[in-house]
UniProtKB/TrEMBL annotation:
Its EC number is 2.7.7.65. One of its GO terms (cellular component) is plasma membrane. SMART domains: GGDEF, PAS. Residues 188-321 form the GGDEF domain. SUPFAM superfamilies: Nucleotide cyclase, PYP-like sensor domain (PAS domain). Its cofactor is Mg(2+). It comes from Saccharobesus litoralis. GO terms for biological process: cell adhesion involved in single-species biofilm formation; negative regulation of bacterial-type flagellum-dependent cell motility; regulation of DNA-templated transcription. It comes from the Bacteria. This is diguanylate cyclase. NCBIfam families: GGDEF (TIGR00254).
Amino acid sequence: MPNSQVDEDLKQMHALMAMLQNLDVGLVILDRNYNIQLWNSFMESHSGMYPHEVRDRLLFEEFPEINEDWFRHKAESVFLLNNRAFTTWEQRPYLFKFKNYRPITGKAEFMYQNSTLIPLASANGVVERIGIIIYDVTDQAINRVELKEANDQLKRLSRTDKLTGLYNRGYWEECLNKEFKRCKRTGNTSTLLMFDIDHFKKVNDQYGHPTGDEVIKVTANILQETMRETDIAGRYGGEEYVVILINCSAEQAYHFAERLRTKVEQTVVEHQGFKVNYTVSLGICELADTIVNHSQWIELADQGLYRSKESGRNTATIYTRN
Ligand SMILES: Nc1nc2c(ncn2[C@@H]2O[C@H](COP(=O)(O)OP(=O)(O)OP(=O)(O)O)[C@@H](O)[C@H]2O)c(=O)[nH]1
């Protein structure tokens, strides 16, 4: 080959190397034994390690954060099959654990990365090296994470009653429907308790709406303190509450209802200089074979509640057919 041609090839090679060095993506070349052969400026600036420090060093020794078994498994198929392989940040947040210095996405502690492994075949077609390309996808990942957080928050809000923090009627009914179906499937029994503040209109009339609101909130707190974590409580209407007592019979629910009723009876709500005593009436309905859907379950618990109101309030009644 004439000298001028060699010079030209070398020049082109230098230009290519300069370009690779300055790409805004990470580029690492590994030999067949996973020793580092090339380390571009992106890798240098994010790892703080110069190319001469890592050259000919075993990848897994220099970067113990890389799961060796997983990486070898992936890379061997690239070596053997001459195929590319990809890993996204959703599968693994990063390959190299680089600190994130980006001001806009300061929220992320580490750089999120997508990575691609590419086979580098020599003239005889044998893959003797592989290239790792690292893409910094921190902005994209953070946006996605934030969007998910916002959606989760929105979902929570759409399920929750603002005043009490209990589930709202719509979402609670969905839960009841699920529980209804679960009990029918498994043969377990759960009991529905519905209760309502007595003469609440008078509370509002006598002390004003804000104090009425406070009474509604305090009652929700008492309910939450009294029930189990697995029970599912909701605000059914203005001053009407519901709770699904999971895996609980009517008799057990009656004890629960009495505890709740007594706590309320003993509570004094202090608000805006007022001291409010009040009571609740409760209806109980255990799920039975005769109940055909969750709406009927609610109706029957409501009938229990109605009987409590009829019999003078501040009492709990288990629904029975007569
Ligand atoms: N402060 C306040 N009042 C509410 C809210 N939602 C409903 N109410 C009031 O709750 C009262 C319910 O009154 P009624 O349905 O007549 O029942 P009650 O006075 O509790 O009588 P009984 O249930 O028969 O003991 C109404 O005056 C509503 O305005 C709320 O979010 N805040």
